């Protein structure tokens, strides 16, 4: 049975998802050890790999064995839960240093994220390849943007800004009034370029704090 399970990773798309999962664990390790910028930088690699696994799955559909696509869909969903829900909720708590507002934001984000992923698992994209509500994959890029803007925000205000931003995003995750196009085609390399550039910027921004 073990060989059969591991065998699903011989599929190109599932192997990419597994690589993204590894980056997600590294990101959590870094963030929980006080290196939040580095953690978010690593999670951005999970984020862009999340687009590549779907792209590769569509391109290699004729090569995929029976059951591989179904496994890949579930596998991808669990990794989405880590990088789009659990990780940002943890960062909110770390940045907020245990304030009631950070707890509220993390609760709302976790609940909304779980609802959204369950909804997508059962409903999927709309007929014109759009998401209903904002996908949880937008959470890590928002974290990255907020951290890059951090030097311009007073230290005592930044935790509140992060919590409020994610309270709003949590509500947008479960709204049915918004349709968001899926990142496909040329959007995948564009997202990759964005993720790499921003992750490099976060690493560079983290250097002064690491030296202190």
Topology:
Blueprint lengths: L1 H6 L4 H21 L3 H24 L8 H29 L3 H24 L6 E3 L6 H11 L8 H16 L5 E3 L5 H25 L1
Antiparallel strand pairs: 1-2
Can you give a write-up of this model?
The chain has 212 residues and is mostly helical. It has helices at residues 2-7, 12-32, 36-59, 68-96, 100-123, 139-149, 158-173, 187-211, and strands at 130-132, 179-181. Strands 1-2 form a two-stranded antiparallel ribbon. It starts with a helix and ends with a helix.
The shape, in one word, is globular
Distance between the termini: 50 Å
Q: Count every helix, treating DSSP H or I runs of 4 or more residues as helices.
A: 8
Order of helices and strands: HHHHHEHHEH
Record keyword descriptors for this entry.
2 strands; mainly alpha; 212 residues; 74% helix; 8 helices
In brief:
This protein is an all-alpha fold. The protein has helices spanning 2-7, 12-32, 36-59, 68-96, 100-123, 139-149, 158-173, 187-211, and strands at 130-132, 179-181. 74% of the residues lie in helices and 3% in strands.
């Amino acid at each position: 049975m073990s060989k059969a399970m591991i065998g699903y990773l011989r599929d190109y798309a599932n192997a990419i998802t597994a690589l993204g999962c590894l980056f997600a664990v590294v990101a959590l390790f870094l963030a929980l050890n006080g290196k939040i910028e580095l953690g978010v930088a690593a999670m951005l690699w999970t984020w862009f790999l999340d687009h590549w696994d779907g792209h590769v799955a569509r391109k290699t559909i004729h090569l995929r064995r029976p059951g591989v696509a179904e496994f890949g869909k579930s596998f991808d969903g669990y990794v989405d839960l880590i990088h789009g829900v659990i990780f940002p909720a943890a960062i909110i708590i770390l940045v907020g240093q245990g304030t009631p507002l950070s707890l509220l934001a993390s609760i709302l984000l976790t609940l909304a994220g779980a609802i959204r992923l369950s909804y997508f698992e059962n409903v999927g994209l709309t007929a014109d390849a759009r998401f209903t509500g904002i996908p949880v994959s937008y959470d890590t890029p928002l974290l990255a943007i907020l951290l890059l803007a951090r030097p311009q925000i007073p230290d005592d205000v930044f935790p509140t800004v992060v919590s409020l931003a994610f309270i709003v995003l949590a509500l947008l995750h479960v709204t049915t009034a918004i349709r968001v196009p899926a990142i496909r085609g040329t959007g995948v390399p564009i997202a990759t370029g964005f993720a790499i550039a921003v992750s490099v910027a976060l690493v560079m921004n983290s250097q002064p704090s690491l030296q202190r």
